[in-house]
Amino acid sequence: MSDKRVRLALIGCGGITRAHLNGYRRIKEKEPDKFDLVACCDTVRENAEQFATDIEAMQGMKPRVYTDVEELLKHEQLDGADITTPHHIHHTAAIACLEAGVNVMIEKPIGVTVKATKAIIAAAQKSGKFAATAEQIRRGPMQRTAHWLFNENKLIGEPRLFFAQHASWSRPHQPTPWHWRVEKHFGGGGMVMDSGAHFCDTIRYLFGDVDTVYARVEQLEKRQIKKDDAIIPDSREDTWVATLNFKSGLIGLWSYSTSLPGHHFTHVVYYGTQGALVDSGDVFHGPFAGAYLRLPNGRTRRLTELHDEFLETLSEEQKRRLFPHGFTEQFTLECYDFLDAIQNDRPPEVSAEDGLKAKAIAEAIYESAYLNQVVSVQDVIDGKVENYQRDVNERWGL
Ligand SMILES: NC(=O)c1ccc[n+]([C@@H]2O[C@H](COP(=O)([O-])OP(=O)(O)OC[C@H]3O[C@@H](n4cnc5c(N)ncnc54)[C@H](O)[C@@H]3O)[C@@H](O)[C@H]2O)c1
């Protein structure tokens, strides 16, 4: 391992940056010399100042504070930047960093659109630095176990079909207060591509690429946003039903609605040819620790039990790679991978290309609904289908 101490900046100091910082804190406790957080950048100075104060308490040295990415890059010699800004800023911040020779890790859903994501990838290729997607979910012990189950252990055979369904009822009595997330040009879309980015990455991780998609995406309850003194329509979906056809032949049904009164349920089951993995929790962030296997003979096995078996199959080197220092917290693992990739001049586990392929599943869902036809995920990646995303691309000059 290289003894290079990584010089890191946080770009964006908001809600999820706190989870990243907690990850860096856990890493610092185990490997104090691995990195220094040298700068915090947020357009809201108080946000950056607050993080800088907290980081000083953690590492003894206060990071310098910036309110502009260009200023940050002009004054700092960085090895990496962890980007946790709103979606429409991801590509501009990442490209500026890459052009300055700085590796980046960018929160999901990587670019605000496919075009934005491809611009990040092009900048990384040109600079020789890497762009990682900050995707923590697949790194959890249950996700690693599920990956082993479906790809190596095969206790429930070959993946055949899954249902990931949620129905609930949240009638909008008041307009949602404005925030970047609620306006399409800033957020890029609703939950299909926001929390949905995690599910799209997980199903790719477990089952490989999706070939085609057919989807309906709807807003069943009229929803509104309060922006300054105006009330404007909220364009985000509250409902979708998507059929996902994987290259492997696996079929997935992913559906979600918060506009269904009377009967609420969450139902996530992955069927193989010889049994099922029944999950609990939600349709975005699983499999969860409560998940269990059901076999045709009526036997059940908890996923947590299988996790112990999975760990026994791992070499010491594999354990160090998947759970360095015994970490199991997902953000800690994500941040560790980023730092370690910089230190050892290796690719990160979840590249920008991986982020693009996961993102393209979500965008294919929107595009299919927009066109009311089956859409190829590769066509979305290639830019041959760009109807839903066009106004966002135009807004940001992409
Ligand atoms: N991995 C997860 O589980 C998870 C969960 C929540 C959010 N996220 C992702 O994290 C990112 C941020 O989401 P959030 O909920 O923390 O948002 P947030 O609004 O809480 O924080 C964003 C921060 O970025 C700052 N910012 C805005 N423009 C900037 C710019 N040009 N330069 C520097 N800073 C700027 C804002 O002032 C704010 O402090 C999004 O990509 C979101 O999808 C991921």
Which features characterize this protein?
398 residues, alpha/beta, Rossmann fold, Dihydrodipicolinate Reductase, domain 2, 2 domains, nine-stranded mixed sheet, six-stranded parallel sheet, globular, binds nicotinamide-adenine-dinucleotide
Concise summary:
The chain is α/β, with parallel strands linked by helices and 398 residues long.
- Tally the beta strands: 18
CATH architecture of the largest domain: 2-Layer Sandwich
What is the count of distinct domains? 2
The main pleated sheet reads as: 9 strands, mixed
By CATH's scheme, which homologous superfamily of the largest domain applies?
A: Dihydrodipicolinate Reductase, domain 2
Fill in the CATH topology of the largest domain.
Dihydrodipicolinate Reductase, domain 2
Proportion in helices: 25-40%
Shape: globular
Structural class: alpha/beta
Describe this structure in words.
This protein has 398 residues and is an alpha/beta fold. It folds into two domains: 6-136 and 329-345, NAD(P)-binding Rossmann-like Domain (Rossmann fold), CATH 3.40.50.720; 138-322, Dihydrodipicolinate Reductase, domain 2, CATH 3.30.360. Helix content is 40%, strand content 23%. The chain is built from 14 helices and 18 strands. It has helices spanning 15-30, 45-59, 69-75, 87-99, 114-127, 141-153, 184-187, 196-207, 303-313, 316-322, 330-343, 352-371, 377-382, 390-395; strands at residues 6-11, 35-41, 64-66, 80-83, 103-107, 131-134, 159-167, 176-177, 210-218, 224-227, 230-233, 239-246, 251-257, 265-272, 275-279, 292-294, 300-302, 375-376. The strands form three sheets. Strands 17-16-15-14-7-13-12-9-18 form a nine-stranded mixed beta sheet. It has a six-stranded parallel beta sheet with strand order 3-2-1-4-5-6, with helices on both faces. The chain is globular. The chain starts with 5 loop residues before the first strand and ends with a helix.
